[in-house]
């Protein structure tokens, strides 16, 4: 090691392990930091794009809000099940037509799904829900209403957390999110006065939690302008509905929507400037606390 | 028993089965369980060692106790070695030196060969003569079987020995001389005895002489051909010939692999004595050319009744065998093998028990001779257990059929069944309300409750339909008690099973429903999370479901989840009822198994003739004198009762499943049916 203390001028240092070199083990020369890179994967966001993308969250929040509002109206007797069923039917037929019209049938052709399969699925939904609606009606009779509310709230929150907003994360599970929404809708439907109410409520939940996001996704991909309009309209409708029940709630909800669609993107872009991420040809040092030392 | 003049001396037990002592040249290396007790009245030991010994004893017992309780130490021979060495530091007592000699601790004392002479204690008062027996060279020991008295003709003795050797397959030979002089020692006799050694050439030639009433015998060994005649130490071991002959050493060494080792084991001595049984069976009044002294059996005359029984048993056994073959032929006939019947037979414990007893009878009546001690004991155990079973059964029957007890029983049976049904109805009414404040699904609760109530109604009408015939049925069924108490108990168990059939039905309905829910919920929970069970890889995989699948799955999941508590409560209540019935039946079967499997003959033998089942031997040091050979008394350690039961336990058919508690709990939780009888599939496990 004595010769390794002062580098031999004739030889250059190489970053290899298979040769014996006259340098200490931790020796590096000045070329080492030449390969340093900063913020390689950091992306530059534009404010408008972020606001546009946050539309998915706003939409889902509004969906939950609309669903709860509908249930509220039905529980209070302000909305007849027949009326809701008719409205839902009309809107889903419209949506169905729109779904194929937006991309000119390209998506349907790609998935290979026939109209007969759609009809079958619809029939299965309707038959099962109608058949089970008396059971659903009496299902939670003996369980306390507060328990049901707590469970539904929890499930809807879970639905919002696990929903697929387009991000590629491990927590996203559209199946779990949809199942939680159905569970919540069944719980809430069992509180309604009659079996027909329960049936209509579950059907509506299916439409708003399963079919509506599919249409939204297609709209977002094909006609972004239209999507923004629909989102704004939907949010305004939800706010208006909420205002009839509780004005404080409406204000709070409006501020929440604004925060999500305007404030959060702004924060993201501001914080993005502070990002300082270095990359280089080295292994990152992991500091592992030797806990066993303290346990002794 | 002749007076050998022992006082309680050093007591050593050698457990044959725990550690075979193979190397007798160095003494016993077996586990020595020494309760160190020295005679306090011995004349020849000094005062100080006794004092030291007292301290030592208390210390020793304390250490031993500590070792036993905390460290479990005494199982290691090192422990004893160590304790013996410590003892040597304390004192130099001759008997302690003996202990060390036996334990092989002090090798300087063991340079000379130790010759062990096993002497039958019944011969200690015999007249002078020559000793015959077997020389076991591997152990350097001599087993003396008998004393041949003067006068005799050497040729006749040799002839006689040859004959004995041929019959018994034991190499019996003349080993030495025995002189029992009442008066002073005669010079001429001792010379004559030495001369005998030249006639019957045996190496070594042992001379034992007893003088007057002296307790201490003098022994000497003559080795004429040996190059370096060395001082041999002799240990005289007295044994009871009759007990050693009759005793059976445990564990039995029948396997061929152990035969080579046999010679160096204690069993060689036991085997020698047991095999020369023919020698002792000669009649007392049968005057032959040779006069012998040994343990004398009473001869054939004494056991004339036994002989008569033996003769009579042969035709009886043949008749029994014929009847049994006829019976088993009927049982095996094809008519009884059709599906519903065979199913019924396998579920009725009475049939199982009868089949078991039939096998027992076949074993007893088989004309094949028992090959070894174990089979003999098995036969005897089966016979005694059968006998006691039948006697108990007949006692039960005589009690039952007196004073019209059957009628009373039948009269109480129907009200009891009614009462049980009423109790069940009350229970169901309670469950249909809000049991214990639990909130159950009202609609499902009502449906289940009404279903079960209707079932009870059916059951009661069935019982009332049957009630006129119950007394008659009981009367005929009671007759079967003469086949044995176990059969009667099995019938009782079957009757309980039949009378609680409604409880069983409830249990099955409840369990099936609960099982369905549990399995449904577990698979739907996977669907709820977007996973599925991969059968090929035996793991949970993620899976993308269709929308309608998801919807229906979640709908069912919700419904099942909210209905689970109701079903679980019904299941719990009926399972508890079912368990109660199963426990009662299990207790009855435990009793039956106890009667079936208890080796009663062996236990009686252990109680009355404890030497017959030997687990090992212990040696007791008799009084000691300087210059005379060490004298030990060999006593037989009987087998413990637990050992007897373990060795001779009869196999039973076990008709109840041997589930572990964990698997039972798992089954109960998952709602799988638990049966009191064994599945066909479970037998492989």
Automatic annotation (TrEMBL), chain A:
UniProt keywords, alphabetically: GPI-anchor biosynthesis, Membrane, Transmembrane, Transmembrane helix
Which GO BP terms apply? GPI anchor biosynthetic process
Instruction: Give the UniProt entry's GO cellular component terms.
Output: glycosylphosphatidylinositol-N-acetylglucosaminyltransferase (GPI-GnT) complex
Q: In which pathway does it act?
A: Glycolipid biosynthesis; glycosylphosphatidylinositol-anchor biosynthesis
Question: Is Transmembrane set as a keyword in this record?
Answer: yes
Q: Where is the signal peptide?
A: none
| UniProt feature coiled coil, ranges | none
UniProt topology in membrane: Multi-pass membrane protein
What residue ranges are annotated as transmembrane?
47-73, 79-99, 119-136, 198-215, 227-245, 251-269
Give the location in the cell.
Membrane
Main subcellular localisation: membrane
- Database matches in InterPro entries: Plno_GlcNAc_GPI2 (IPR009450)
Family per UniProt? Belongs to the PIGC family.
User: What is the designated name of this protein?
Assistant: Phosphatidylinositol glycan anchor biosynthesis class C
Q: Which organism is it from?
A: Serinus canaria (Island canary)
The gene that this protein is the product of is PIGC
From TrEMBL, chain B:
Which spans are transmembrane here?
312-331, 382-401, 447-466, 473-500, 506-528, 549-573, 579-604
Query: Which keywords, in A-to-Z order, does the entry hold?
Result: Membrane, Transmembrane, Transmembrane helix
Task: Return the Pfam families for the record.
Answer: Gpi1 (PF05024)
Top-rank taxon of the source lineage equals Eukaryota
Can you supply a Gene Ontology BP term from the record? GPI anchor biosynthetic process
Molecular function per GO:
phosphatidylinositol N-acetylglucosaminyltransferase activity
Task: Tell me a GO cellular component.
Answer: glycosylphosphatidylinositol-N-acetylglucosaminyltransferase (GPI-GnT) complex
What name does the UniProt record give this protein? Phosphatidylinositol glycan anchor biosynthesis class Q
Organism of this sequence: Serinus canaria
Q: Lineage of the native species?
A: Eukaryota, Metazoa, Chordata, Craniata, Vertebrata
